[in-house]
Amino acid sequence: MAKEPLEGMIYMNDRAFLDTNILVYCFDSSVPDKKKIALDLVLELWEWGKGVLSLQVLKEFFVTVTQKTVFKMEYEDARRAVEDFLCWEIIYEDRDALKMAIRVSRDYRISFWDANIITCASLGGCSICYSEDLNDGQIIEGIKIINPFRN
Q: Domain residues of the chain, as ranges?
């Protein structure tokens, strides 16, 4: 029997894109409340097969957990984590994605890197983007931003 989704987290008909910070919190013991929420979300998306990532997210994740978090991960542990995440659907950007990210950045007045996240979510057919960095509840290019750490 399938488990019920976490209340208020995802809608099972929706594909969801994860921003880098969600993955980082899965491994960051310095913020235990966020770590639990992030782990629950990642495990749920994995179980339901609805999670989408991009190469940008995985690159940022690797740099952050090996260089920027309070409890830095060992290189090999971070490499293995990236390889595990490569089992998810990964969005590979192309020229059209670059053009879209530039347009989204201009149209919504957000950073290029945040626009690139939205672009990859769109290319992945996602209707939700989980992020702590974008505005919770905002809809950009038809993608609803949800901050799972709100409250």
A: 16-146
Residues in CB range of 67: below 8 A, 6 or more apart: none
For residues 128 and 112, the answer to whether their CB atoms sit within 8 Å is: no
- Give residue 6's pLDDT: 44
Superfamily of domain 16-146: 5'-nuclease (3.40.50.1010)
Task: Name the pairing type of β-strands 139-140 and 143-146.
Answer: antiparallel
Amino acid at 91: I
Q: Give pLDDT, residue 102.
A: 98
Q: Average pLDDT of each block of 10 consecutive residues along the chain (151 residues)? A: 43 84 95 96 95 97 96 96 97 97 98 97 97 96 96 75
Is 93 within 8 Å of 120 (Cβ atoms)? Answer: yes
Q: What is the 3-state secondary structure (H, E, C) of 48-87?
A: HCCEEEEHHHHHHHHHHHHHCCCCCCCHHHHHHHHHHHCC
